[in-house]
Amino acid sequence: MRFLRSLVPAAALGAASLVLAGGSLWALAPQEPADKAEALLKQMTLDEKIGQMVQVDLAALADKNDIAKYFMGSVLCGGGSDPAPDNLPSTWVHANDTCQAVSQHTRLKVPLLFGIDAVHGHNNVQGAVVFPHNINLGATRNPKLVEEAAKVAAREIVGTGMRWAFAPCVAVARDERWGRTYESFSEDPSLVSEMGAAYVRGLQGAKLSAEPFSVLACVKHYAGDGGTTGGKDQGDTALDESTLRNTHIFPYRAAIDAGADSIMVSYNTWNGVKLHASKELLTNVLKHELGFHGFLVSDWAAIDQIDPTSYIKCIEQSINAGLDMVMIPNGLDKPNNYVNFIDGLKQLVADGKVSQERIDDAAGRILRVKAKMGLLDHAPAPTNKAATAMIGSPEHREVARECVRQSAVLLKNEGSMLPLKPGLKHIAVVGQAASDLGMQCGGWTIDWQGKPGEVTAGGTTLIQALQAAGLQGTQVTYSAEGKIEGNPDLILVVLGEKPYAEMFGDRFNLSLPANDHALVSAAKRTGKPVVTLLYSGRPLILGDVLTHSDALVAAFLPGTEGAGLADLLLGKAPFVGKLPCTWSASMIQIPFNQGDTAKGDPQFPFGHGLTTTVAK
Ligand code: GLC
User: What are phi and psi of 106, to 5 degrees?
Assistant: First the structure.
């Protein structure tokens, strides 16, 4: 008990007898989740209720014991806040289990929700399977496979003890200048809707439950994130209400029907109004009209943008708009830190500017979701080590490899160059990307922005896969710089965007860089057949890379399982991928989406994708 006293404010301990006399939270009789949440809410003080509404980034915590001191409901590791530079599964397990243990040093012992950006597999964790990004999953047109991918991601997330993923992103990306285009399944609301719902089912199961591998989905970012003018990240979505509803709100209905129980609000404005301050869209449309009964979480310090001159106004406007949980990444050295948020919200309630009913609604929503997940049924158990051992398993990698096979899009195939004919004596592979796992994975991989190079363990680059494919009698040579030696039968040029995330990926010129053009032109000048494969988070302006290539594959961002691409090139699997987005021929056509008939012909239309058969 002495240890406990050192962690918990006396005031809370004083009240502890009340609950312990009636048996701890864990002794409450089994009840329906909603009833259990209601019973718990009734026992809570204002501090405890407000605590549930607080989500703090681990890197911002002055002291982990603040989790108990302020009765926090959630913690996260946002992009770049990893618990330790090694990113090993055991490090993540330790971070999760430590935080959960601290949550038990409170009067009511309400466990935490530990949120993580597992957006294409458990991508923060060394050795986890990094799946293709959503743009690839949209290209598969295969909701069953997408559900399977999410299920594997859920198993690896639980392998680090966590049960909340900030995924799926159901942005409808309408302008590929946006740096987050690859986080969108498609430009088409129906395709996004279908894949988003499938991803929710994969993460949560048939419904969110106490099942060990049922991971809370967090559908994001509501609403209009993919529709900003010029594709500016966190910009303004200038649309009439009908277009906003039919394009950008549309996927949320299917996600809610699939059981999604948390939704992340978007940074952007709609016609100048911050989504985080829009009671119309958060409460009237999402909660009342669409019947969303889960909870709304803010984006990273997003409420601060409502009124940069007054943090208390940001709190008042966002909570009254219908925000339930606030993501607070700032430490005590910043005015908009978690203690100031708590003090500010308490003051607003005391002044009658935020009603007790609104607090009860917010905390109640959070508790109901925790109850559905079984978090109110027993004290948090240490992470299941058997699940940890499954991180990066061959079975999990095989699912990701199938996603790669079904998501690469064959844009051009003159003379049926692909699949590569058996009996080739020499394939010359050129381009850094062919041997760069980081470029294969893209952003949100180990690091927030991702980076080139050997970013994680267990992956396979395309060149590794080709050289391991056991091509009898075929020499596979490789030169990052494009040096072509000997007399190859064919040249495979692999190009790739440097990894990026969020606003760092916003670009106003999507032309391929000069050295990419140089690589392909040099290959062309040899007079040999040229196959070009491109890693990119979006359509890029191809120019003569297209004319100089006999065959061209848009692989987008396939993740760690490069062997899936070798399967396609070598005819072990057929090309089936279809473009989830219109591919513009020039910058002046952008934004260019299906139905934009006034812009002439795109380079390749939405849905384009050549097919091949499996080599005998
Ligand atoms: C970021 C992103 C959001 C992510 C969150 C936590 O800024 O907008 O997608 O889930 O912060 O890292």
Answer: -125, 170
Residue 503 has pLDDT above 50, yes or no: yes
DSSP readout, 169-208? B--B---TTSTTGGGSSBS-HHHHHHHHHHHHHHHH-SS-
- For 408-599, CATH gives 3.40.50.1700
Pull the structure tokens for residue 502: 């969020």
Q: Distances in Å between the alpha carbon of 266 and those of 73, 171, 254, 299, 321?
A: 21, 10, 18, 6, 13
Helix (H), strand (E) counts: the chain: 22, 17
Structurally, at CATH architecture level, domain 32-388 sits in: Alpha-Beta Barrel (3.20)
The token pair at 446 is: 């180990």
Residue 300 CA: which ligand 1 atom is closest?
A: 11
Strand (E) or helix (H) holding 77: strand 74-77
Distance from the alpha carbon of residue 166 to the mean position of ligand 1, in angstroms: 8
Instruction: Tell me which H or E stretch contains 326.
Output: strand 326-328
Does 117 sit in the ligand 1 pocket, CB within 6 Å? Answer: yes
- The burial class, CB within 10 Å (0-12 / 13-18 / 19+), for 39 is middle
Residue of 529, 406, 497 lying closest to 149 (CA atoms): 406
CA angle 612, 615, 616 (to 5 degrees): 140
Residue for token digits 């106003």? 508
Count CA atoms closer than 13 A to 379's CA, side-chain side. Answer: 14
- SS3 of residue 570 by DSSP: coil
The H-or-E segment that residue 467 falls in is helix 462-467
User: What gap in Å lies between CA 542 and CA 516, rounded to an integer?
Assistant: 10
Judge whether 502 counts as a catalytic residue: yes
- Please, which pLDDT band fits residue 27 given cuts at 50, 70 and 90? low
Backbone φ and ψ for 531, nearest 5 degrees, come out as -110, 125
- Measured in whole angstroms, the distance separating CA 137 from the mean position of its chain's CA atoms is 12
pLDDT tens track for 191-217: 999 999 999 999 999 999 999 999 999
Distance of CA 88 to the CA centre of its chain: 20
Q: What is the DSSP letter of 446?
A: S
CA–centroid distance, residue 365 to ligand 1 (Å)? 21
Give me the residues paired with residue 236 across strands.
269
Stated length of the chain: 616
What are the domain boundaries of the chain?
Answer: 32-388, 408-599
Please give the structure tokens belonging to residue 44: 């809570």
Nearest residue to 96 via CA among 69, 54, 125? 125
Candidates 257, 195, 176, 208; CA nearest to 372 is: 208
Q: What mean pLDDT is predicted for residues 215-235? A: 98
Whether 299 sits among the annotated catalytic residues: the reply is yes
Q: pLDDT of 133-142, one tens digit each?
A: 999 999 999 9
219/257 Cα distance (integer angstroms) = 12
- Does residue 25 have a pLDDT over 80? no
Of the residues 502, 516, 550, 567, which is catalytic?
502
Nearest Cα residue to atom 11 of ligand 1: 300
What are the start-end ranges of the H helices in 234-337? Answer: 241-243, 250-257, 279, 311-321
Per-residue pLDDT tens digits for 359-384: 999 999 999 999 999 999 999 999 99
Catalytic residue, candidates 48, 299, 506, 516: 299
CA of 497 to the centre of ligand 1 (A): 21
